[in-house]
Amino acid sequence: MSDAIPSFPATSAASAELKRTYTKVIWRLMPYLMLAFIINAIDRLNLSFAKLRMAEDILLSDAAYGIGAGVFYLGYILFEVPSNLYMQRVGARATLTRIMILWGLITVATAFVTSPGQLIVARFLLGIAEAGFFPGLILYLTYWFPAAIRGRITASFFMAGMVAGMICGPLSGTIMAHLHGWLGLRDWQVLFVLTGLPAVLLGVIGRFWLTDRPEQACWLDDEQKQQIHTALAGESRPSASHSGFVGALRDPLLYVAGLVCFCIYSASNTVSYWLPTLVQGFGLQDLQHIGLATSLPFMTALCAMYILGRSSDRHMERRWHLSLALLTAAASFWLLDLAEGHAVLSMLLVSLGAAAALAAMPLFWTIPPALLSRSGAAGGIAIISSLGNIAGVLSQTAVGAVKTATGSLYLAFDLIAVLLVLGTLLLLIAIPAARLAPEGKALA
User: Fold this and answer.
1) How far are the Cα atoms of 57, 267, 301, 356 from residue 308, in angstroms, in the given order?
2) How far apart are CA 444 and CA 73, in angstroms?
3) What's the CA gap between 135 and 137, in Å, rounded?
4) 186: closest CA among 54, 288, 291?
5) Greater confidence, 430 or 274?
6) Sign, Cα dihedral of 73, 78, 79, 80
7) What residue stretches are annotated with the Major facilitator superfamily (MFS) profile domain (predicted)?
8) How far apart are the C-alpha atoms of 60 and 58, rounded to whole Å?
9) In this structure, what are the phi and psi dihedrals at residue 274, rounded to the nearest 5 degrees?
10) The pTM is what?
11) How far is residue 420's CA from residue 361's CA, in Å, rounded to a whole number?
12) In a domain, 102, yes or no
């Protein structure tokens, strides 16, 4: 992870000292945050695998599953902005650890639902519990890391989510294949219990491990704290013409970014919740084989995130890197319909499209901090994330309805491809490169 630290614009001695300081910060914070994100991603993805077995037990239709997947985001959206604003008052440690403990307990409780209605309620409560986790982490990164390295830091953070995708398939398949009947529980119930408990444990540990801000870190000496303060204070944000949360709400680019986020999340959420079902439609039936196959797109995405994150930071360019990822995903999803009946070609297209859609997320999240003032960042990031998460409500409900009506997911992926193209056009036309320029230097 220390590879994320480039040379800083300073004397060689000062740059070396700053690099050593940030190496220490990275090894202190990032393993915990990445592990938290892995567990968070697994506790979202587990439903897509549980569906393969729980559908028969609780009479869950594809339409009801789509509602259950989508209603999570409704709860998330309703409480996302208040959670991030509250985080500024009570601190990141108290907020993030509370969220982890609550979502872990609700994930465990989901094992005991007996009807589609109960599952929908459980997912809504999970959304409320998780609200603020992702935007809180994005905001937390801005407290510690300057823009010069935030692209790779953010990419590393999202790469943890891809590791979760690689782990979740084989892990879920193994649990459901071999632990049916454990403690009298069915296979999908065991899955929810065993993937929910680690979040509770990590939340408890976080109370003693996390530090809210650099100046409060007892594991840094005074000189190191000053180095971080200077690195963060040296950032100029000429693009932020507003001040505070209310000022951020008056900036049209806040909503443009939210719409771009909506398009990206429509794709990434559809991949996350429907990938096992799609792969099953290619002819695979064994749960362990499905789990292994679904890990391939996440492995590809892991490589794409690393390459695009490094390139984006090296060239200090965000828009065209993000556009490339979005258009690649759109083309892959559109071609998927033409490859129907060809399992290998379909799997290759799904892997490429999913990897590009997932790799777009860390690229996108380097943009909002450049658009917002520091005082408006907490609420502004939450607003953008909330607008993006509306896609979780609408797209998953729509995908479930399309699958129920047609018996196929291909039309749904065609619609996602159209949204990705629209998102690309909106990004390139409505967000000027100059608004993302560090220290007054416009980006290409």
Assistant:
1) 43, 18, 10, 10
2) 34
3) 5
4) 54
5) 430
6) positive
7) 29-435
8) 6
9) -115, 0
10) 0.70
11) 12
12) yes
**305, 313 contact by CB (below 8 A):** no
Block residue for tokens 């000027």: 432
One-letter amino acid of 430: A
Where does the pLDDT of residue 240 fall: very low under 50, low under 70, confident under 90, or very high at 90 and above?
A: very low
Query: In the predicted model, is pLDDT for residue 398 greater than 90?
Result: no
Tally the domains of the chain: 1
Handedness of CA 333, 286, 50, 169 (dihedral sign): negative
Residue 107 exposed, middle or buried by CB count within 10 Å (0-12, 13-18, 19+): buried
Structure tokens at 50: 């549980």
- pLDDT at residue 441, as a whole number: 42
CA 308 distance to own-chain centroid: 16
The domain containing residue 185 runs over which residues?
18-437
d(CA 108, CA 88): 29
Residue 389 located in a structural domain: yes
The one-letter amino acid code at 84 reads N
CB 412 within 8 A of CB 270: yes
The enclosing domain of 171 has a CATH number of 1.20.1250.20
For the chain, give the mean pLDDT: 82
5: phi > 0 → left, psi -120 to 50 → alpha, else beta; which?
beta
